[in-house]
Amino acid sequence: MTTLLKGGLVVNATGAVPADVLVDGEEVAALLVPGFPVTADETIDATGKYVVPGGIDAHTHLEMPFGGTSSSDTFATGTTAAAWGGTTTIIDFAVQAKGTSLAATLDEWHAKADGNCAVDYGFHMIVSDVHDTSLKEMESCVAAGVNTFKMFMAYPGVFYATDGEILRAMQKAREIGATVMMHAENGIAIDQLVAQALAEGRTGPVEHGLTRPAELEGEATSRAITLAKVTGAPLYVVHLSAAQALDAVAQARDTGQNVFAETCPQYLYLSLEDLARPGFEGAKYVASPPLRPREHQSELWRGLRTNDLSVVSTDHCPFCFKDQKVLGRGDFSKIPNGIPGVEHRMDLLHQGVVRGEIGLERWVEITSTTPARMFGLHPRKGVVAPGADADLVVYDPTARQTISAATHHMNVDYSAYEGMEVAGRVDTVLSRGRVVVDGSGFRGAVGHGRFLARDLNQYLI
Question: Is a pLDDT exceeding 90 seen at residue 67?
Fold first, then answer.
């Protein structure tokens, strides 16, 4: 099966050029001078549109247990929604429960995902139980193509790791070439602030943000960077939300340390004001780290321009408002943490191009090319080039749309961006050469997506 994408502007992280894209089977066969005579089984008109590499969302939580419930998107619904939004690869988190092995955890997540995904997928491993056996198991995870290990400085009693445990895991990561991912918030201090708020009768959703101040994210980020420096391990800070944390990352990167960070669309567009919406509406916006005061947004955009923030992922972790978020009514600490967003990441970041926050090539870089290189998928993913997987998105920058729960495809009953008008829209999506979304609707299939065994971080120095 051959497909010709004709008349578009091919945009890679390295530049944009008018070209036709010839796909043969699952791979890009050639970039052709526009109008070059060639026949194909199917021709897609990309005139006036961008042709970009499929998005890579490196931070999702599908079917994730949390507080007696689970995130509402399955691997089937979540990856289908991803495809609708131009994301053709996700990397989800396999969650080790205390007392279980990493190997059993990986098997459990394969059982959930294998044969149930509409786009390609990989895994990170959450390490919540650090001991000699689990440290040894990190080696087998790397051999199985899972070479990123997430740890938590938050959630005491659940995922929390002590500094000593983090240091041991980082030493192991340094030994085997893996990257440690860090949820950097001072969970011990936060728990005290939460207890004090509840004791004083402050129970509404906004307290989630007020009891997790930016300073405690900054402190934890600095501490994680210090531990990484002592051990020589690479560090990737997940879902960075605060200017204080960004300052710590920038300072470390300026010294040449292998420190990287991502942010998420919610921290670029939403704020503490959303957590403070009347009644219980703020529960829709409860995630950790929390939404910050608006002044942090400009700092995060600046971090994206300077590459101190290297990636934008979603931390997609949806919980329905009516049946799940309500578990925390009267006690904000029991509100399931997470905001849906896997379907709208490409569109929301394109608004940064429209507003002049980032350039067109940078849009592609932070949504596709850098995550491909950061997580060992490049040049198979993250680029429109001969030999790469034909994960391609035809994107119409002139289209207009309004984001709404009434029209999205995520399995959640609200949108965090309800009513937001955006410029640009996904027109056609190919996953490994197969058209999965076009004007006629969803043409893909659950089970099309394949597991991606990943190589090591390509940015390490």
Answer: no
